[in-house]
């Protein structure tokens, strides 16, 4: 493609880009404070992005090291056919893969159709919870005991690594390194990390799953890091029960909405979230160069 030039000044593009982000989050059902907070997260590092234009639209790209490998990112694409230029620019910076965040989910951002062949690596989803969530009959929820934390953590780490690898985002070694960093960052004080709560779900006195949530993660939002039904208890309708626990925990923490991440390749979970009304806030896709 010819006619695309890198520009140093972001002013003509940036305001419109940030407004499109806000509009996408509002359309997904976010409150204004939450939409603003999500936009701020989405534009982290924007001053360091490379901006290009052909006079009719924009391309915003970045190349940075991630898990020891240079990764390209396409932050905005409104130039028709501009994907080839963006990928070539990323490759010239030494990137071995390119990632894209589709704000508001597939179809909500200009250029989305250009990335239809990029495999889905993950999604952020959210829904306002019931004012008084009701737990399913026969299910009881209690706080995870501190002496249970070590076994819970080992299980969570193994599950997290498996999810990352299944999504095709990283190699097993890279996934383990990411897991170590992420758990250390999210739980610096382990079981006693402020704002975090851990639960055990029981039926008939048997623990069938666990939950891990972070209250006040964003304005009015509890983040569900994990609502996990143990493998030996799956296929019995407990998935919906776990979602009810997430809603209940959200209200316990004084929040109004539940947000969580689902990895690509987990079609069963995505189907459950579709059927329970959890909207896609962001969809993450990537492709190897």
TrEMBL record:
Domain N-acetyltransferase: 139-289
SUPFAM superfamilies in the record: Acyl-CoA N-acyltransferases (Nat)
Gene3D superfamilies xrefs: 3.40.630.30
InterPro entries named in the record: Acyl_CoA_acyltransferase, GNAT_dom
Domain of life: Bacteria
Coiled coil: none
The protein's name: GNAT family N-acetyltransferase
Species, as recorded: Streptomyces racemochromogenes
């Amino acid at each position: 493609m010819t006619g695309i030039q890198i520009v140093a000044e972001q002013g003509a593009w940036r305001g419109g880009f940030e407004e499109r982000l806000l509009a996408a989050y509002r359309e997904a059902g976010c409150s204004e404070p939450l939409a603003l907070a999500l936009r701020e997260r989405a534009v982290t590092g924007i001053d360091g992005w490379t901006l290009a234009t052909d006079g009719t639209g924009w391309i915003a790209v970045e190349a940075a090291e991630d898990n020891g490998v240079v990764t390209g990112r396409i932050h905005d694409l409104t130039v028709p056919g501009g994907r080839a230029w963006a990928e070539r620019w990323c490759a010239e910076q030494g990137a071995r893969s390119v990632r894209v965040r589709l704000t508001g989910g597939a179809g909500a951002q200009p250029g989305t159709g250009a990335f239809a062949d990029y495999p889905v690596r993950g999604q952020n989803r959210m829904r306002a919870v019931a004012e008084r969530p009701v737990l399913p009959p026969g299910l009881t929820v209690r706080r995870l005991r501190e002496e249970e934390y070590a076994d819970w953590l080992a299980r969570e780490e193994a599950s997290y690594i498996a999810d990352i690898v299944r999504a095709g985002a990283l190699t097993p070694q890279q996934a383990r390194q990411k897991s170590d960093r992420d758990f250390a960052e999210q739980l610096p004080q382990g079981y006693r990390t402020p704002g975090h709560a851990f639960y055990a779900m029981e039926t008939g006195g048997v623990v069938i799953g666990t939950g891990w949530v972070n209250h006040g993660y964003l304005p009015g939002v509890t983040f569900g890091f994990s609502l996990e039904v143990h493998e030996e208890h799956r296929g019995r309708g407990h998935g919906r029960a776990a979602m009810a626990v997430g809603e209940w925990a959200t209200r316990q923490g004084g929040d109004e909405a539940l947000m969580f991440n689902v990895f690509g390749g987990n079609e069963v979970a995505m189907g459950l979230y579709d059927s329970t009304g959890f909207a896609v806030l962001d969809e993450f896709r990537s492709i190897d160069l």
